[in-house]
Amino acid sequence: MRIKIDGLKNGSNIFLVPENDITGTVIHDYVIKDSQDLELEIQKSGNYIHIMGEAQLGFKSICDRCAEDYETSQIIKIDYMFHIGKLDELSDEMVTVDPSENEGYLDLLPYFTEAFILALPVRQLCSENCKGICQNCGKNRNEGDCGCNFEKQSDPRWETLVKILNKNGET
User: Fold this and answer.
1) Contacts of 166 (CB under 8 A, 6+ apart)
2) Which residue among 84, 119, 145, 157 sits deepest, i.e. has the most Cβ atoms within 10 Å of its Cβ?
3) Backbone CA torsion sign across 110, 122, 138, 72
4) Between vectors from CA 127 to CA 126 and to CA 128, what angle results, nearest 5°?
5) pTM (2 decimals)?
6) In terms of Cα–Cα distance, which of 43, 40, 66 is closest to 55?
7) So where are the chain's domains?
8) Beta pairing partners, 97
9) Can you give the pLDDT at residue 142?
10) First CA to last CA distance, the chain
11) CA–CA distances in Å: residue 142 to residues 19, 82, 133
12) 146 φ, ψ to 5°?
């Protein structure tokens, strides 16, 4: 995913990343199984470039509750600002690119990776109703009851609070 930045005209530019350039990409432990074309709008104004776009990606993941593989999809949004050449002032928010490096290309893969990781939900679940695995025997509880009998145990540190709540009629 490389964009030729020294050939961009001022104003709006369209850059298309075909789905077969995205499909099969491995980002950390995630393998992108299917994608749509990623159409990027690139706004160039003088020495500034603003790259925007979004695509829906299907990928393989592992459920955080039951540890089973499953496939899901996520919309990722690309929205980055770049400055061409060196900035006079140091700016933490602005990424600079030098057209004399990398034959005038900007490698978009690190930014695509970052956008993908930031779009992931905090908890990866195969379904909203995932029951997870049994804490005692390790059986996937989505496949049926494991037969382990757990009595409701409370933490002794909370017993005083439970007594106060029960006294007030709350449970």
Assistant:
1) none
2) 84
3) negative
4) 140
5) 0.73
6) 40
7) 2-119
8) 84
9) 92
10) 56
11) 34, 47, 8
12) -90, -15
148 Cβ neighbours under 8 A, 6+ residues apart? 134, 136, 137
* Gap between the Cα atoms of 50 and 60, Å rounded: 30
The answer to whether 132 touches 66, Cβ cutoff 8 Å, is yes
Alpha-carbon distance 87 to 48, whole Å? Answer: 11
Q: Per the structure block, which two tokens stand in for 56? A: 């829906």
Return the amino acid letter for 113: T
Query: Are the CB atoms for 41 and 13 separated by under 8 Å?
Result: yes
Mean pLDDT by 10 residues, the chain (171 residues): 83 88 85 88 90 91 92 91 74 68 83 91 92 88 83 76 80 51
- Residue 15 · residue 2 · CB < 8 Å: no
Q: Which two tokens stand for residue 137?
A: 């025997």
What's the CA gap between 108 and 128, in Å, rounded?
34
Spatial contact of 67 and 128, defined as CB atoms under 8 Å apart: no
Residue 165: predicted pLDDT:
87
| Residues 11, 43 contacting (CB under 8 angstroms) | yes
